[in-house]
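Appendix B. Chain record.
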Amino acid sequence: MGRIEARVWTALAGIPVVLLFVAAGGLWFKGLCLVLALIGVREMQRAFKSSGDYGRAPIIGEVAYPAVAYAVYFGFSALWAISTLVSLGVLAVVFGAREEQDGSRLSLASLCTTLLCTLYVSLFALLYPLRALNNGKWFWLVLLLVWTGDTLAYYGGKRFGKVPLSPLSPKKTREGFLIGLFATTLVAPLLAYMLGLPIERAIVMGAAVGVAAPMGDLLESFFKRELGVKDLGSLLPGHGGVLDRCDSLLFAAFTALLVLGAR
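Structure tokens predicted for this chain:
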């Protein structure tokens, strides 16, 4: 089975399951967030180890997952969740600054990579606060916008793309990015009308998600390049791992909470 066929079959099998958990909300969605976060932590740890960096691999688990689990389980508000992420960054630097067994210390670049990876995995803590807003309507909007933007940016880039968007991801083009941004901004008010959400804020959300989702993808491309891996995982055939599949949504959720004036 080719990569395209595997990608399609995985999507057909996985999307209905994800939608059921999102629709159920409550403990079901909390459980989904915790499982995805745990898998994401393991994927990031394996990526560090595959790059030969065994010293920093445990940091991701030591710092990220306990905080994500605590925030999701106790239903932190969005503001508290975001504040937790900032605190995690400080903790990651402190943990990362520990001396290695040979007495050497990690470089600033290594510490920054560890910090970014820890913060990135911790973004799973923001999914539940977003799902809890307005009976889940904002989460549905963001999820649909991410899927719309990703799909149209991909096919638009293949058809019209000429100028690379970033050296981090040569296959992504500026034309595809602009098509995705235009699509999310255009579709957002239509989805908002169907969901009963404020049209004006939805337009802003559409533009914000149209920018944030590709940035999340590029950030993960940066991690993979720094760690020397093609994919962060292999759980989802044709898609890579959980982090490979959730990269756009995680960054979009963070941005969405900022747009909504997280409190």
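Further analysis of this model is presented in Appendix C.
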